[in-house]
Amino acid sequence: MRFYNTLTRREEQFVPLRGRLVRMYTCGLTVYAYGHIGNFRTFVCLDVLRRALKYLEGYDIRQVMNYTDVDDRTIIESEKAGLPLREYTDRYISAFQEDAVRLGLEPVEETPRATDEANLRAMTGMIEALEKNGHTYRSDGSIYFKISTMPQYGQLARLDHEGIKPGARVDADRYDKEDVRDFVLWKATQPGEPTWDYGVGPGRPGWHIECSAMALRLLDGPPIDIHAGGVDLVFPHHENEIAQSEGATGTQFSQFWFHVEHLLLGEGGKMSKSVGNVFTVRDVLEKGFRASALRYVLLSVHYRKQLKFTWDSLSQADEALTRVMDCLLRLDTVPRSDVEATVTEKV
After folding, report:
1. Residue 9: which residues within 8 A CB-CB, separation 6 or more?
2. How confident is the model at residue 219 (pLDDT cuts 50, 70, 90)?
3. How many angstroms separate the CA atoms of 299 and 263, rounded?
4. Cα–Cα distance between 177 and 192 in angstroms, integer?
5. Residue 30's pLDDT is what?
6. Is the pLDDT of residue 169 over 80?
7. Mean pLDDT of 82-100
């Protein structure tokens, strides 16, 4: 099998590093709200990749898909709701799982939460390794990654190094390419925020360290075979994951990077929870459409091309799916013979 590797910007032959086992990490949902259909475009496309590797290529699969249940947004929204963080995020994890079943996603092997103790300990262990290797500094109780210590920083996102601001810091989890700075690994405790102390001081993890640590812990170390997610994660999230993981281990983090393009609304805007222009799986079902029709739409355009969603496109997909199902039903009525057995089985 060949597919496009974001890291090298070309199609490459895929061969897993450990025999017939594919070790794959998917950046999952940040559970401060319901997942929208733009999120699910990524998850449906990656479900197809998983199935192709497993059923067509015959590989064994070990896939991890995380839940980001602590970051700036989950904390803000849980405080607004007046609920403890864990209780608040539980509801959206359950909703995601229900939507995944509706859309026919095959369950993955591991679905860790960032706030599980084993994962928090893995994060602080990685931070300690980064400190030992000279990639960090502390300021006002927080720990930062010093990007000037990583000459290859920016390789995934193709950053212009002239735009990097050495010594400047950014505490936000999300920021733009025009604002490249040293990023936070462990945030100092703030009043009212959840806090943990597993060896690097009281605080909470930055968003980027979460996925690095969970991927390496649950996929048995680097390099993993495939790291996947939406194209919006290339920078800063995946770029920072590479810096952290390779800075801590001295080894390549992932041999393949697989990214799914945006889903756009009819007028061309990117669907985004932070903007508020989103439709959920529940919205689609409440309008009378089948979940299978939504899956059909989400797979109707190549994963590396932007997909423009309209309600008309969903209606057309529903009609096309009905024709496919009618055809399959008619095939069941065709008399079978020994000669046709192989063909019938394939259909």
Report:
1. none
2. very high
3. 11
4. 31
5. 97
6. no
7. 97
How far is Cα 151 from Cα 161, in angstroms, rounded to an integer?
Answer: 10
> What does the block give as tokens for 51?
């199935």
**Residue of 61, 45, 23, 27 whose CA lies nearest to 103:** 45
Give the model confidence (pLDDT) of 289-317 as tens digits: 999 999 999 999 999 999 999 999 999 98
Question: Residues 124, 200: contact at Cβ < 8 Å?
Answer: yes
**Contact indicator for 310, 59 with CB cutoff of 8 Å:** no
- Mapped onto helix, strand or coil, the DSSP state of residue 310 is coil
Q: Binning pLDDT at 50, 70 and 90, where does residue 343 land?
A: low
Judge contact between 66 and 233, C-beta under 8 A. Answer: no
Tell me which residue of 185, 149, 152 sits closest to 167, measured CA to CA.
Answer: 149
Instruction: Supply the pTM of this predicted model.
Output: 0.91
Token pair for 162: 């002239």
Supply 83's token pair. Answer: 């609920």
In the chain, beta strands by DSSP E: 2-5, 10-13, 21-26, 60-65, 136-139, 142-145, 169-170, 182-188, 203-205, 224-230, 254-260, 263-265, 307-309
**Residues 252-279: what's their mean pLDDT?**
85
The chain-wide mean pLDDT, for the chain, equals 92
112 cis-preceded (ω within 30 degrees of 0): no
Taking CB atoms within 8 Å and a gap of at least 24, the contacts of 144-150 are: 144/169, 144/182, 144/183, 144/184, 144/185, 145/182, 145/183, 145/184, 145/185, 145/240, 145/243, 145/244, 145/247, 146/182, 147/180, 147/181, 147/182, 147/183, 147/243, 149/247, 150/243, 150/246, 150/247
- Residue 275: is its pLDDT beyond 80? no
